[in-house]
Specification:
The chain is built from nine helices and twelve strands. The chain has helices at residues 13-16, 24-35, 49-62, 80-87, 96-106, 112-115, 149-159, 179-192, 220-233, and strands at residues 5-11, 38-45, 65-69, 92-94, 119-121, 125-127, 136-139, 142-145, 169-175, 197-202, 211-217, 239-244.
Amino acid sequence: MRQKTAAIIVIGNEILTGKSADQNASFLIKELYALGVALRYVVIIPDEVDEIAKAVRESAAKYDYVFTSGGVGPTHDDLTIPSIARAFNREVVRHPELVALLQGFFGDKMDEPRLRLADAPQDSRLVYGKDLTWPVLATENVYILPGVPEYFRRKFAAISEQFRGEPFYVCAIYTLEEELDIAERLDALAAQHTDVEIGSYPVFSRDDYRVKVTIEAKEVAAVERARDALLAQLKADKLVKTEANYE
């Protein structure tokens, strides 16, 4: 199975100016990893149509899934919908199913600002999930999510299973050897085992280990081959422990 890839586009001047702290990208990074999706790109951009359209267009062409955060709503600075429409050379239209949902919810209070919540790039689709009364709007491979963290998490959780793929398998090796001392061995390991990703993470405020090395792939056998090769090269009296998420 080919590894699926993803991009996250966080939209909002309030994030770039520090008025609000982004919570959605950090949440989604962990969720995508748990689903077996390889996140390849994260960007924070302002509420500018050209910037949003460019980021969406380029990301949609390069990655399997694109998730946007923010810029949806009835006010002047909610520009995600028209920007995505521009990215795909489409018109912004009133989605009839969204209009019906809004009428059922607001009733006599329906007005133009509320109707704007039914705006969508032409030929977009609605993605429903478990316990989700208001669907996620998707245009091509772009999933449009709100900026409010509570709603962002709720909506993604409702549709997340459709993105599940083969999991990542990871082995972690902890050693008391210093990173500078094992650097050449790690370089050789990476050159010999190109079917895994190897990470090296030194610590300077702990006494129980000095370096954590991770070996990661979609295939358990590949991880185990690299793990065994590395263990054979590390000093046994400096080895602290090994951990794996597949045993």
